[in-house]
């Protein structure tokens, strides 16, 4: 019985992942090689050309998504690390209050928050409209429908996912280790660089993973904040799947996107040192 | 040296508050415009204070249905996720078994899979298998994308747990179940609760995956996106405000109760 325990514990979760993650991938792989249309149905023809066609049509949006996702992730890391650091080491007894305040946006729907930004940043809305009335901004000034709006929206929406894992990693760092470094004549900067930063890297790894992937594939920010010239690959896949009912093209694009992200994650993991990839992802 | 450190700390403190304010500003806007006495069709400029939208909260009937769907789906999927996710987290954190490497990889893959790809692949499966899309398929999808987060938070907690505590309990005559309930579970509880809160938040928030597997069932985020073109009624702001308020109240009550117990 004791030997069976881990299998019994793991079984339901494992089955869920196998049936609803692995099997659907196979289904999508199959669809991506089919031809046909929504009315007459689709048939398996092993048309690998679906991939080439989809890529040549939508390479701009794909590259743009990777760029926006990357920019947003770097912004989140730079913005979020100091916050996680301060709460972990200087938050004192109010640590949980600060974490709670950072998580406040999660009590409001993601879509609703993005719409609020659209509203806040509107060309003649409460912010810019007022500044224009006061003559502080030129009439033509706008933020909506720019790259800045989309990258800013992505940064805003996923920031807590960057801060939390870094906080968890930093919170585990024993302050006495930092004191020891300083007792051994390390400057504050050196103690940070040689002791704190390396110990927080698993958190940074998890944070980047939890933000880059969803930011790159997100269709909502581009749709609500980006106008027509900032379309990302997520918008294309959604349209092909749900509006055009072109399942093969949509599946081929989804697979390509996932392959690029997976390869990216592995290259990135290799660069950080492979030994703790799964462990790092776990934190 | 010390003063510089203190100044740096003070700057970081102010900076942390700045980020908190930035993160909260759209919430403030949402709450404010739930009180806007708007006359025109669009709710974009301030036209005076009213409580009208609170009185007429449930007047947009399909919006009310969408909200109820979202709450039920979030509740059911959180319960399922927490139970099977905690079990899997315990298994992976405590035991080495055949297939644990592959299972770790699956957990990792579920986190790395973009929501969009997850939604598209689930739709491929449901279309291929002629599975009708409704609240059940939404729950299946929500458990799928929340599961790994519960596994990961619980597993991290289990790994950090000193095994000698459990051994001591067993040595003192506790049964396996007693040890779990009185030693293991309380120690991993912060991880379980964090996972549960994350699951609920992810579920009630989700637009992308749900948009693929919803069939004709509409959730709160789906309804809102559908209404963007025609204009968001202020009832949406009010509902958002109420969800926000109730969530905050529960969380604060929870924290106060935890402090009392300690």
UniProtKB/TrEMBL annotation, chain A:
The chain crosses the membrane at residues 65-87, 99-120, 140-170, 191-213, 250-269. One of its GO terms (biological process) is transmembrane transport. It is a multi-pass membrane protein. The keyword Transmembrane helix applies. It is found in: Cell membrane. InterPro entries: MetI-like, MetI-like_sf. Its main location: membrane. PROSITE patterns: ABC_TM1. Keywords: Cell membrane, Membrane, Transmembrane, Transmembrane helix, Transport. Residues 62-268 form the ABC transmembrane type-1 domain. GO terms for cellular component: plasma membrane. Belongs to the binding-protein-dependent transport system permease family. CysTW subfamily. This is ABC transporter permease. It comes from Nonomuraea aridisoli.
TrEMBL record, chain B:
It is found in: Cell membrane. The chain crosses the membrane at residues 12-35, 71-93, 105-129, 135-154, 238-257. One of its GO terms (biological process) is transmembrane transport. GO terms for cellular component: plasma membrane. It comes from the Bacteria. Gene3D superfamilies: MetI-like (1.10.3720.10). Keywords: Cell membrane, Membrane, Transmembrane, Transmembrane helix, Transport. CDD domains: TM_PBP2 (cd06261). Residues 67-254 form the ABC transmembrane type-1 domain. It is a multi-pass membrane protein. It holds the Pfam family BPD_transp_1. InterPro entries: Bact_Polyamine_Transport (IPR051789), MetI-like (IPR000515), MetI-like_sf (IPR035906). Coiled coil: none annotated. Belongs to the binding-protein-dependent transport system permease family. CysTW subfamily. This is ABC transporter permease. It comes from Nonomuraea aridisoli.
């Amino acid at each position: 019985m004791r030997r069976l325990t881990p299998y019994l514990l793991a079984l339901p979760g494992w089955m869920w992942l196998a049936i609803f993650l692995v099997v659907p991938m196979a289904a999508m792989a199959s669809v991506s090689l089919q031809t046909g249309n929504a009315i007459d149905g689709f048939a398996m023809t092993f048309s690998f050309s679906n991939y080439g066609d989809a890529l040549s049509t939508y390479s701009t949006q794909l590259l743009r998504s990777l760029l926006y996702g990357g920019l947003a992730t770097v912004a989140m890391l730079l913005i979020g690390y100091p916050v996680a650091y301060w709460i972990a080491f200087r938050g004192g007894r109010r640590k949980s209050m600060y974490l709670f305040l950072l998580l406040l946006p999660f009590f409001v729907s993601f879509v609703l928050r993005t719409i609020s930004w659209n509203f806040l940043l509107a060309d003649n809305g409460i912010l810019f409209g007022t500044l224009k009335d006061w003559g502080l901004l030129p009439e033509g000034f706008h933020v909506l429908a720019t790259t800045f709006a989309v990258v800013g929206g992505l940064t805003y929406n996923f920031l807590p996912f960057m801060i939390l894992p870094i906080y968890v990693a930093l919170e585990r760092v024993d302050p006495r280790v930092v004191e020891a470094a300083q007792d051994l004549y390390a400057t504050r900067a050196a103690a940070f660089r040689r002791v704190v930063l390396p110990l927080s890297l698993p958190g940074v790894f998890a944070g980047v993973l939890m933000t880059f992937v969803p930011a790159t594939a997100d269709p909502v920010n581009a749709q609500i904040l980006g106008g027509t010239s900032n379309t990302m690959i997520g918008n294309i896949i959604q349209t092909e799947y749900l509006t055009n009912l072109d399942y093969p093209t949509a599946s081929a694009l989804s697979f390509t996107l996932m392959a690029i992200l997976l390869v990216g994650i592995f290259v990135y993991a290799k660069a950080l040192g492979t030994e703790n990839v799964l462990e790092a992802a776990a934190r | 040296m010390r003063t510089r450190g203190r100044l740096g700390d003070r700057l970081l403190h102010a900076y942390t508050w700045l980020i908190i304010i930035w993160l909260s500003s759209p919430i403030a806007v949402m709450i404010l415009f739930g009180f806007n006495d708007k006359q025109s069709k669009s709710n974009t400029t301030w036209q005076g204070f009213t409580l009208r939208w609170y009185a007429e909260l449930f007047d947009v009937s399909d919006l009310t249905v969408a909200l109820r769907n979202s709450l039920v789906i979030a509740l059911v999927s959180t319960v399922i996720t927490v139970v099977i996710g905690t079990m899997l987290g315990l298994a992976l954190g405590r035991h080495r078994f055949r297939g644990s490497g592959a299972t770790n990889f699956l957990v990792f893959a579920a986190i790395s899979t973009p929501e969009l790809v997850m939604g598209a692949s689930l739709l491929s499966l449901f279309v291929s298998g002629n599975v009708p899309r409704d609240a059940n398929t939404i729950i299946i999808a929500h458990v799928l994308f929340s599961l790994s987060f519960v596994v990961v938070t619980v597993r991290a907690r289990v790994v950090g747990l000193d095994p000698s505590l459990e051994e001591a309990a067993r040595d003192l005559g506790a049964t396996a179940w007693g040890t779990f309930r009185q030693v293991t579970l309380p120690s991993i509880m912060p991880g379980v609760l964090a996972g549960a809160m994350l699951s609920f938040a992810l579920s009630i928030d989700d637009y992308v995956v749900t948009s693929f597997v919803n069939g004709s069932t509409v959730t709160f985020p789906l309804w809102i996106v559908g209404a963007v073109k025609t204009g968001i009624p202020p009832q949406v702001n009010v509902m958002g405000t109420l969800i926000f308020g109730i969530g905050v109240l529960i969380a604060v009550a929870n924290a106060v109760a935890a402090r009392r117990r300690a």
